[in-house]
């Protein structure tokens, strides 16, 4: 079991550091199969927290700090607000709506017709939407990646900046889980073990993307976003 989780953690780290998202989608089902969803969520949150923190450190010099801070300003409180609606929101329907929106975003990005103002307002609005959906549905990676992808950053800058924002949001979640007594020694140990594997995957992937062409890289990320969004829509539609 430990070997399986370490291998999946390594692959999840490589995936997240390659395109900025998707690691959680790979990790959560596997951990859930071993431990159940109540344990899997805090375990994956701990692993992703440290994984995102490592990506931030690996790309520290390339982080767009001002834009990241504008993103975080609304996303932190709105994550808590979104969590309030977690129990009453029609999660499957909302997930389908988010998936469709991400596909439209990715298609416009691929066609070169996506243009957002490169100012604080774009990051503030993007952080607001991401924070609220993150709290309500637990979907943050693809959304925050879409926001940072619109900035036309270099691959390393995009990965590191998005990871910095994700790290802070995961810290907020860990604090909440701690207050709810969802984090114990076993959860912490398992999360740390997976995190080590993810960090190794992060390091390998971020070395690879340093010399990748920016435009081609953004097209690959947009295509991956379409595939992931279709997966979200199909998975949610099955349970409607």
UniProtKB/TrEMBL annotation:
It is found in: Cell membrane. GO terms for cellular component: plasma membrane. It is a multi-pass membrane protein. The keyword Cell membrane applies. Keywords: Cell membrane, Membrane, Transmembrane, Transmembrane helix, Transport. InterPro entries: TM_pro_TauE-like, TSUP. The chain crosses the membrane at residues 92-110, 122-143, 187-205, 217-237. Pfam families: TauE (PF01925). Belongs to the 4-toluene sulfonate uptake permease (TSUP) (TC 2.A.102) family. This is Probable membrane transporter protein. It comes from Hallella bergensis DSM 17361.
């Amino acid at each position: 079991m430990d070997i399986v989780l370490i291998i999946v953690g390594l692959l999840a780290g490589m995936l997240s550091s390659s395109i900025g998202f998707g690691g959680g989608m790979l990790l959560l089902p596997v951990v859930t199969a071993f431990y159940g969803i109540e344990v899997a969520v805090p375990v994956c949150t701990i692993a992703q927290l440290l994984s995102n923190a490592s990506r931030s450190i690996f790309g520290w010099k390339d982080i767009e700090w001002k834009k990241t801070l504008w993103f975080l300003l609304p996303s932190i409180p709105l994550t808590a607000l979104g969590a309030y609606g977690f129990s009453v929101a029609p999660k499957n329907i909302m997930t389908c709506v988010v998936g469709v929106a991400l596909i439209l975003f990715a298609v416009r990005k691929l066609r070169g017709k996506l243009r957002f103002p490169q100012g604080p307002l774009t990051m503030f609005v993007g952080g607001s939407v991401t924070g609220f959906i993150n709290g309500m549905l637990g979907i943050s990676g693809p959304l925050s990646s879409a926001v940072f992808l619109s900035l036309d950053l270099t691959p390393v800058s995009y990965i590191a900046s998005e990871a910095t924002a994700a790290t802070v949001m995961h810290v907020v979640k860990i604090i909440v889980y701690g207050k709810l007594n969802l984090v114990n020694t076993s959860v912490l140990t398992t999360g740390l073990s997976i995190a080590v594997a993810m960090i190794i995957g992060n390091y390998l992937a971020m070395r690879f993307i340093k010399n990748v062409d920016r435009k081609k890289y953004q097209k690959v990320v947009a295509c991956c976003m379409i595939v992931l969004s279709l997966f979200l829509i199909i998975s949610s539609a099955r349970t409607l």
